Amino acid sequence: MSLREYKSGNTFPGVIGRTVDKSSPAWPEPLRAKEGTPNILFIVFDDTGFGQFGSYGSPIKTPNLDALAANGLRYNNLHTTALCSPTRSCLLTGRNHHSNAMSCITEGSTGYPGGNGNIPFENGFLSEILLQKGYNTYAIGKWHLTPSHQLSAAGPYDRWPLGRGFERFYGFLGGETHQ
């Protein structure tokens, strides 16, 4: 039996009878990506270069990554910031690291504009945009985009992955961890 769904804001199309056998349920339709939209897998590797992956001409065989790259898009004109956190902020927002207040890694926050480590919420993350379009979002690995003083169990949590458009997160928030 398939679920009967209806658009949010519309009248309930089910039936509420005197007993369950005289009733039929219906659920509000969840937000979903449109039919035919592509899957998106966004892979960010820290401290690597073109020489590490076969899909970019490496002498090392990376068959699984090569297969993913063969069926997708590969970008090769990224200007890095030479540091992991600022570069990651640029990739996830499409903005300059100073616009993201990430002139350095989060542990090096200065408290000055462009360097306080608090990525502005108006600098939307790719994950936030995709989530609004019905995609499911999942982050795995090193986050390193939350100021150090906001990493404790006391929060705040709005700059953690689940606060920036990811529905699930499996990884570590800080930078220097033994993986």
Task: Explain this structure.
The protein is mostly loops. The chain has 2 domains: 30 residues, no CATH class; 144 residues, Alkaline Phosphatase, subunit A. It is 14% helix and 8% strand. It is built from 3 helices and 4 strands. The strands form 2 sheets. The protein has a two-stranded parallel ribbon. The protein has a two-stranded parallel ribbon with strand order 3-4. The longest helix is centred in the middle third of the chain and has 10 residues. The protein starts with a strand and ends in a 7-residue tail after the last strand. The mean pLDDT is 89.
Which characteristics define this entry?
179 residues; Alkaline Phosphatase, subunit A; 2 domains; two-stranded parallel sheet; 3 helices; extended
In brief:
The protein is largely without helices or strands. It has helices spanning 63-70, 84-93, 126-132, and strands at residues 5-6, 27-28, 138-142, 168-172.
